[in-house]
Design a protein that fits this description.
The complex is a heterodimer. Chain A is about 70% helix and about 0% strand. Chain A is mainly alpha-helical. Chain A has one domain: ABC transporter involved in vitamin B12 uptake, BtuC (Orthogonal Bundle). Chain B is α/β, with parallel strands linked by helices. In chain B, about 50% of the residues are buried. At the A-B interface, helix 7 and helix 8 of A face helix 3 and helix 4 of B. The structure holds adenosine-5'-triphosphate and magnesium ion (MG).
Chain lengths: ~300, ~525
C-alpha cells in the first residue's frame, strides 16, 4: 500500500477520472437540457452508443478524430430525432420509447459492427494532445488535465456555456418554461414542440460526442455495448444536479474517479477485486440520492407531452 | 352617464368595420358542443362583453381567437379576409392579445422573466428595457407589478395583473380579457374598466368576459350572451344606450337563464342569534412568515362558534391565503396555535386535520384542489384514497366509488358528460362544485372557504352561498375568505378585516357593517 500516494498513482487516477468523466459530463449536461425542457430522455444511453459507433467508424475511415466527433454528434442526433418525433411531436410515452431506442441501438450497432469488422476490434491511433503552456507543466494535474485532446477542454467549457444559456439568455427562459408550464410558453408565442425538439436533438449531439469520446479517446476502439450504463449515470447526474451545470461536472468527476480507481490501483500494485471497485459509482449514486434526493424538485411538466388546447 | 354610455352615444352613428370576426363558428369536444354556430364581431373602439353561464362556451371561443383551438366549422375573418389562426404565436402576430381565465404564467420564473418570455431566443433578456416599458404601462394605467417577485409566490390577483401588463406590452389591436376581474378588488376593477375605456378610445377592440352584470353594463359597449354554446342574443350599442341598468340587467338575465331566472343581486343579510357555545375553531396568535415580497400572517387570533360564519374581508394578497393554508396545515406556522373544539391540531398534518373535521376549499381549484387528469369520481375521493368502503384491502371498489360520485354529482348539480370525465375538462364553475362536494362530505366540523364563488355564474354563486348558509345551519363553523364585500355581508355573522397580514378589526354584521369594514380596509391599507 505504500505506493498509493506516488505521483504515478495520482496522475493515473486523475487522468482516468477525466477520461471516464468526460462522457458522463456530456451525457449529464445533455440529459439536464432535455429535462429542463420537460422531456425525460431515457434514450440517452442509445444516443451515446450510436455516437460511439458512428464516431468510431467515421474516425476509422477518415483517420481524423474531428470527423469522428462530427460522426458521433450525427449518430446521437439521429437517435434523438426519432425520440423527438415520437415523444415530443406525437406524445408517446417517453420512458417506453427511451428504453426501446436504447435496446434497438444496442442491437443495431452490435450487428453493424459484426458485419463490418467481424470479430476483430481495430484500434485507432492514440489521440494527439494539445498541451496548455505552463499549466501542463504542473505536477500530477499537468499531464492528467492540461495535456489532453482539445475535446476535453471543449467538454468542460460546455459547463460554462450551458450555465450561460440557462441564466443569461431568452433561450434559457424558454427551456425552463417548456419544462415547468408549457402552456404559458405557448401562449407567449414560443412553440413548445419546437423548443423541446431542439433540446432533445442538442442532447443527442452532446451524448453522441460523449459516446465518440468513449470509443475514440477513452478506449481507442469500438466494442458492442461499450457505453455500459454511462447514459443512465448521466440521467442520475442530471437528476441530482437539477438545473445546475456545475454540479453535473462535480458529479461526473466523482463518478469518473470511481471508475478509474480500478486502473489506478493496479498501477499502484494494490489487489482489490475489481468488482468491488466497479460498484463504487453505484454506491455513490445511492448515497447521494439519500442525502440530496429529498429536496428533489423536478420540472413540473417533466415527462408529460404537451398538447395545445387540451384540458 | 357612464363613460361607456358617452362613448356609445358618440359612435352609435358610425359602426366600424370589424377587426376580427367569427362567422358561424362551431367547436365540438367529446360529448359536448362547446360552440354552436357562433357569430361574433370585434369592432375597433368597442368593448364587447361576453356573458354566459359556467360552461356556456366563452373560454372556448377565446381559445379559438387566441390560436389555442381551431374551429371544426366556420370562418374567422381578420380585417375582412378569411384567415386561419394556427397558433398562439400567430394570434399574437395578428395583434390579438389575451388574458386567459386560468393563469398562464410560469410559476418558477420571476415576473420580469415571464414578461420577457416570447422574445427572440438568441438574445439576452433585456430587463432594463422591460422595466422602462412596464413602468410606462403601470403608471398610465394604475397597475402594480413587482418585476423581481417569483411568480408562483404571488396571489392569483397579483398574477392576473401581471397577465394584463403582458397583454398590454404586446401592442395588441384586439385585447381579450377572460374573467380578468374575478380576482381584482373593487378599486382594481374600476381601474381596469377605465383602462378598457382608454384602450378602445385609441381604436382597440376589447373582449371582456365577466360574470358580473354591473361590470358588463358599466364598461361594455355591446353585450353578447352565450348559452349552452349558442349565441342567444346581442345587445348593440344603440339598444344598450337606450336601456337603463335595471332594464338591461333584466334582459340579460332572461337571455342567460331563460324565463324566471330571478334577480342576480345578493340576497339581504338575515341576522341570526346563535346560542352561546364554546368555540369550535380557535386561532391563537397565529404567525406565518411570508417570504420575499409576500405578506405573511402576523399574530392573528379569533374564535368561531358552532354554526357561525366568520367573514374575512380584505384586498387580495394581504395574507388571506397564507392564513387559510396555515389553518389547513398546508403551511407551517412559525408561532401560535390552531384549536378545533378546544384541542390543538398544530402537530397534525393535512390528513389528520381533515380527519379531525377541518376542511379547506382552496381558491386555486386547478393546480392545488384537483388532479386534472383524474376522473371526477376519484377527485371526489382524493383525500380518502385507500379508505373503506371505496377501497378494500388496497383494491379499488369501482361500484362504491361510482355510487358515491353519482350521488354527489347529482346533489351538487355538477354538469358533466359522465363521472369518468377528467375533472380538468370541466368549466371553472363545475370544478368548484366538485371541490365543494368533496370537502363537505363526511364529518366536516370546520370549513375554510377561500373565495368560494370566484369565477362562478350568477346561479352558481347563489347556489354556493345557499350551501354555505346550510352548512352553518348544521352547526359547522365556517371561515369565509372573500374579496367581495357583498358576499361577506350576505353570509357572515361577523366580519374580520385583514390588512398586511394582521387583523385590522372584527365587526358584527349589522346595519353599519359595510361602512365600518370599508373604513378598516382603507384605513389599514393607505
Ligand atoms: N379542451 C377541452 N376538452 C374537452 N372539453 C372541453 C374542452 N374545453 C372546453 N370543454 C367543454 O366545453 C364546454 C364549454 O367550456 P368553456 O370553458 O368554454 O366554458 P365557459 O363559458 O368559459 O365557462 P366558465 O364560466 O365556467 O369559465 C364545457 O362543457 C367544457 O367542459
Ligand atoms: Mg371560462
Amino acid at each position: 500500500m505504500q505506493g498509493l500516494l506516488t505521483d504515478a498513482f495520482l496522475t493515473s487516477l486523475v487522468f482516468g477520472a477525466i477520461s471516464a468523466g468526460i462522457p458522463l459530463l456530456l451525457a449529464g449536461l445533455g440529459e439536464q437540457l432535455s429535462e429542463k425542457a420537460g422531456v425525460l430522455n431515457i434514450g440517452i444511453e442509445g444516443m451515446m452508443l450510436a455516437g460511439a459507433y458512428v464516431g468510431f467508424v467515421a474516425a476509422f475511415y477518415s483517420s481524423s478524430l474531428w470527423l469522428g466527433f462530427a460522426g458521433g454528434a450525427a449518430g446521437g442526433a439521429a437517435v434523438a430525432l426519432v425520440m423527438a418525433l415520437l415523444c415530443v411531436r406525437h406524445g408517446l410515452n417517453q420512458i417506453v420509447v427511451g428504453i426501446a431506442l436504447t435496446l434497438g441501438v444496442e442491437g443495431l450497432t452490435a450487428l453493424l459492427h459484426h458485419f463490418q469488422f467481424g470479430r476483430t476490434y481495430p484500434r485507432l491511433d492514440a489521440a494527439t494532445s494539445l498541451p496548455i503552456p505552463v499549466l501542463s507543466e504542473l505536477p500530477i494535474l499537468g499531464p492528467a488535465l492540461f495535456d489532453r485532446h482539445p475535446i476535453v477542454y471543449g467538454a468542460i467549457a460546455m459547463v460554462a456555456v450551458m450555465a450561460f444559456v440557462y441564466r443569461r439568455t431568452n433561450l434559457g427562459l424558454d427551456l425552463q418554461a417548456a419544462g415547468d408550464q408549457p402552456a404559458a410558453l405557448d401562449v407567449a408565442g414560443v412553440d413548445v414542440v419546437t423548443t423541446r425538439t431542439a433540446a432533445v436533438i442538442a442532447t443527442g449531439v452532446m451524448a453522441g460526442v460523449g459516446g465518440a469520446f468513449m470509443a475514440n479517446i477513452g478506449a481507442g476502439l469500438f466494442i458492442p455495448f461499450m457505453t455500459g450504463g454511462a447514459g443512465f449515470i448521466g440521467i442520475v447526474l442530471a437528476m441530482l444536479a437539477r438545473g445546475r451545470p456545475l454540479w453535473v461536472l462535480a458529479g461526473a468527476l466523482i463518478f469518473g474517479a470511481c471508475l478509474s480507481m480500478t486502473t489506478a490501483l493496479q498501477v499502484a500494485g494494490v489487489n482489490i477485486p475489481t468488482d468491488v471497485i466497479q460498484m463504487l459509482p453505484f454506491a455513490a449514486v445511492m448515497a447521494v440520492l439519500v442525502i440530496f434526493g429529498r429536496r428533489a424538485s423536478l420540472p413540473a411538466a417533466l415527462g408529460l407531452p404537451y398538447v395545445r388546447g387540451a384540458r | 352617464m357612464t363613460p361607456a354610455a358617452t362613448a356609445r352615444a358618440a359612435r352609435a352613428a358610425a359602426p366600424a368595420v370589424p377587426l376580427v370576426e367569427l362567422v358561424e363558428v362551431t367547436k365540438r369536444f367529446p360529448g359536448v358542443v362547446a360552440n354552436d354556430r357562433v357569430d361574433l364581431a370585434l369592432r375597433p373602439g368597442e368593448v364587447h362583453v361576453l356573458l354566459g353561464e359556467n360552461g356556456a362556451g366563452k373560454s372556448t371561443l377565446i381559445g379559438i381567437l387566441s390560436g389555442l383551438q381551431e374551429p371544426d366549422e366556420g370562418e374567422i375573418r381578420v380585417d375582412g379576409r378569411p384567415q386561419r389562426i394556427t397558433s398562439p404565436r400567430h394570434a399574437l402576430a395578428l395583434g390579438i392579445g389575451t388574458v386567459f381565465q386560468h393563469v398562464m404564467l410560469v410559476p418558477t420564473l420571476t415576473v420580469a422573466e415571464n414578461l420577457i418570455l416570447g422574445a427572440p431566443w438568441w438574445r439576452r433578456p433585456d430587463k432594463a428595457g422591460l422595466a422602462a416599458k412596464v413602468a410606462a404601462i403601470t403608471d398610465s394605467f394604475g397597475l402594480a407589478v413587482d418585476l423581481e417577485a417569483v411568480t408562483g409566490e404571488l396571489s392569483l390577483g397579483e398574477q392576473q395583473q401581471v397577465e394584463i401588463v403582458r397583454a398590454l406590452l404586446r401592442d395588441s389591436r384586439v385585447l381579450i380579457l377572460d374573467e380578468a376581474t374575478s380576482m381584482l378588488t373593487p378599486k382594481g376593477i374600476d381601474e381596469l374598466g377605465a383602462l378598457m375605456r382608454r384602450l378602445v378610445a385609441r381604436g382597440l377592440a376589447v373582449i371582456f368576459i365577466t360574470h358580473k352584470l354591473g361590470e358588463a353594463f358599466r364598461f361594455g359597449d355591446r353585450i353578447s350572451v352565450l348559452r349552452l354554446g349558442r349565441k342567444v342574443g346581442e345587445i348593440p350599442p344603440e339598444r344598450l344606450n337606450a336601456l337603463d341598468e335595471a332594464a338591461a340587467t333584466e334582459e340579460i338575465v332572461r337571455l342567460m337563464f331563460g324565463a324566471g331566472a330571478g334577480d342576480p343581486d345578493a340576497e339581504p343579510h338575515v341576522a341570526r342569534t346563535l346560542a352561546p357555545a364554546a368555540p369550535l375553531l380557535s386561532v391563537r396568535n397565529l404567525t406565518v412568515s411570508g417570504g420575499a415580497g409576500i405578506v405573511g400572517v402576523e399574530d392573528v387570533s379569533f374564535d368561531i362558534a358552532p354554526g357561525e360564519i366568520l367573514g374575512i374581508a380584505g384586498i387580495d394578497g394581504n395574507g388571506q391565503k397564507q392564513l387559510a393554508e396555515a389553518i389547513a396545515g398546508q403551511r407551517v406556522a412559525s408561532a401560535g396555535s390552531v384549536l378545533v373544539d378546544g384541542k390543538p391540531v398544530d402537530h397534525f398534518d393535512v390528513g389528520a386535520r381533515t380527519r379531525a373535521g377541518l376542511r379547506y376549499l382552496t381558491d386555486d381549484r386547478l393546480s392545488e384542489g384537483t388532479v386534472g387528469t383524474f376522473p371526477i369520481s376519484l377527485n371526489l375521493l382524493l383525500k380518502r384514497i385507500g379508505a373503506a368502503p371505496y377501497w378494500s384491502g388496497g383494491l379499488e371498489r369501482p361500484g362504491e366509488i361510482a355510487t358515491h360520485a353519482e350521488e354527489l354529482v347529482k346533489r351538487y348539480d355538477v354538469r358533466t358528460p359522465s363521472i369518468e370525465t377528467p375533472i380538468g375538462k370541466l368549466s371553472g364553475g363545475n370544478i368548484q362544485k366538485v371541490l365543494l362536494a368533496r370537502e363537505l362530505a363526511d364529518g366536516a366540523r370546520v370549513v375554510v372557504f377561500n373565495k368560494p364563488t370566484y369565477g362562478l355564474d350568477v346561479q352558481n354563486i347563489r347556489a354556493s352561498r345557499r350551501r354555505i348558509r346550510d352548512i352553518a345551519g348544521q352547526g359547522i363553523a365556517v371561515l369565509l375568505i372573500s374579496t367581495e364585500l357583498d358576499e361577506l355581508i350576505e353570509l357572515s355573522d361577523r366580519i374580520a378585516v385583514m390588512a398586511r397580514g394582521r387583523l385590522a378589526g372584527i365587526v358584527g354584521n349589522d346595519e353599519g357593517a359595510r361602512l365600518r369594514v370599508g373604513e378598516l380596509m382603507i384605513g389599514a391599507v393607505s
